[in-house]
Amino acid sequence: MNLYENLALELENQIRSGTLRYGERLPSIRVQSDAHGLSPGTVVEAYAWLEERGLIEPRPRSGYFVSAPRAETPTPESDVESVYLPPEDPSPEELIHALRQAIYDPKILPLGIATPAAEFFPNAQVERVLKQVLREEPTTLSDYIYPPGTIAFRRAVSSRYRKLQVESEWKDAISTSGATESIGLALRAVANPGDVVLLESPTYFGIIQLVRTMGYGIYEAPLHPTDGLDPEELARAKRKIGSRLKAAVLVPNHSNPLGIAMSDDRKKELVLAARKTGITLIEDEVYADLSFADRRPKPLKAFDPDDSVILCGSFSKTISPSVRAGYLLNSRHHEALFAQKSTVSSGVSTLAEETLALFLKDGFYERHLARVTREYQRLLGLYTSTIIQSFPEGTRVSRPAGGYVLWVQLPGEIDSRSLQRRALEKRINIASGVLFSPQGAFQSCIRMNFAFPFTPQIERGIRTLGALAMK
Known about the structure:
The protein is an alpha/beta fold. The chain folds into 3 domains: 3-66, Winged helix-like DNA-binding domain superfamily/Winged helix DNA-binding domain (Arc Repressor Mutant, subunit A, Orthogonal Bundle); 92-113 and 371-469, Aspartate Aminotransferase, domain 1 (Alpha-Beta Complex); 123-362, Aspartate Aminotransferase, domain 2 (3-Layer(aba) Sandwich). 41% of the residues lie in helices and 13% in strands. The chain has helices at 3-17, 29-36, 40-52, 92-101, 123-136, 151-162, 179-190, 205-213, 232-241, 264-277, 334-344, 350-361, 364-390, 416-425, 456-469; strands at residues 56-59, 63-66, 173-176, 196-201, 217-224, 228-229, 245-250, 280-284, 309-314, 326-329, 396-397, 405-409, 431-432, 445-449. Strand 4, helix 8 and strand 5 form a beta-alpha-beta unit. Helix 6 (151-162) runs parallel beside helix 12 and helix 7 packs parallel to helix 8 (205-213). The model is unreliable at 71-80 (pLDDT under 50).
């Protein structure tokens, strides 16, 4: 510490303790210099330091005096906290915007988003693996890898699916930045703008947005609440739409928002129906690893001898939403998929892919899944019982076979759009059911996330939400 700082801090302590009082004159520079054995320049620096902090003030031809304490500007008190609210009669886009904006406010209960709490991701293990990659392969930071992606990551993906009886080679895999990009690339590979895509209903609103913005028409096919999509829907849609119906985007394992796990028999029937109708099945596997069953369910592609199913997925729901690495798996459409990927991206995230490849290879992933799915099952019971106790009589709650979202059907004519807005006013974030239908159906339904520790705050939030639903 400099000499002037020592003197300045000594005087500051005297001022703050009251030894030197407001309006009191400080010793002159010469007197202070002689008293402390310091040069006059050092004393000048100390006084300048105190003046800058508002502790002393110079007076012309009089010297330096202790300043009056600075009064704090009063801040008006208000019970109103800022939060983005959609309009009174919101469109689906406005509801989605409000839903996503709410994630930036830590004071809002995040029951509407489909992302788990941070403690349900293996952050410490990912960090260790990341450091190992950088230590053993430092050139990863400077490598420029082009599509279809790193060999290590593509091998890891292919190896996992071979264990699920999917006949594939690592060369069939293409890396992407996530499942949404995978679905978009798959659609571009098999359909042109103006063609029609079959979507399940209800389905994730991000898929609906994606299909619309890409210029496709939508055929909305209802899901059975426990069995999933009826294979006959493919034939029915083909009869109505004809050759313009090119693809169907399906989530057979733990769909968002219902959490359904289709039986193997139904999966076989869907693949057979797609083959007969000439419809390409685009399979979203993003939640499939979060199964509550003893064994992870097989994908549609395990029943696909003709390689007509394009399998899409990522690890953003299980390992890390920030380590962006997804995948496509298909041989028949590989060239078209590769061409589409190459046009939208000149490189891949080498560091992310090498990290995930090592994470998958060393068994961290399976141990993590076993732990987190046990916790999700426990939370499912707590959230469900609290909803049933707190919500209006007649409320129905889904029983997901995996994943971490609940589909709640409210009784009567309750408008979930209004409920989402009123809940935000109480700093509770939920997702209105109308978001999950291209036609805006499911007005009396909401989707809720149960992948957050069941704290007293969460319990109060659910009970508050139930009270709002009764108004």
